[in-house]
Amino acid sequence: MATLGPSHYSPYPVAVYENILPPPPGKALLFTEVVDEEVAMREAAKAMLTRENPTIFPGPQVIYAWNEEAKEKAKLIRELAEVLEAKIIPMVDYRPKYPKIDPEKEINPNHPNLTIWHNNIKACIFVGVHCHYANVALKIIRAETDCFTIALCSNAGHEDAMITLRDQHADELRKFIDIAKEVKKEVK
Fold first, then answer.
1. pLDDT at 2
2. What is the number of other CB atoms lying within 10 angstroms of the CB of residue 185?
3. What pLDDT sits at residue 13?
4. Would you state the pLDDT for residue 187?
């Protein structure tokens, strides 16, 4: 472990300091436990369906139609939002918005806590957000809010989310939508 400089920039340490790492391929992370993807999807759907102001934060990898998968994932995210009765707040542009952002219109990875607080968001999903920005934003949200965070990552996942699902593409989103529909019948 590095010792030079302050290791904790917030009173709540980042997940890696607690030996929490992204899940192995084919698995998901539910808080600190490695679980099957379906278990994590059920818990994610339950959190989104039972907590206040569920919100999906889509990033540039799905907002912009830069390839066919992005186009398909964008359609699936809209369908997922309908099933979960969630609003959508885009993470369109990562550049800092100074002197301030409008937290009703977008989330800024430099100040995601403002958007979470302003909209009283208690559960959210990050999808299509580049990993380096998702990592920073999820650390800030984890340290500064009581929002239940879910990361649907195309790559290795994010240990600072309460639930992280790795290698999530169009087929996995379809599976998540089906599971969310089942969970919705159970909790509503």
1. 40
2. 8
3. 63
4. 94
- In terms of residue numbers, what domain contains 169? 41-187
Query: Tens digits of per-residue pLDDT, 120-129?
Result: 999 999 999 9
Report the number of distinct structural domains present in the chain.
1
**Residue ranges for the chain with pLDDT beneath 70:** 1-19, 96-99
CATH number, domain with residue 73: 3.40.50.1220
- Residue 109, domain member (yes or no): yes
| 111 in a structural domain | yes
C-alpha distance from residue 92 to each of 7, 40, 61, 128, 145 (Å)? 31, 27, 10, 10, 22
How much is the pLDDT for 1? 38
pTM comes to: 0.88
Domain assignment present for 6: no
Residues 6+ apart with CB under 8 A from 24: 34
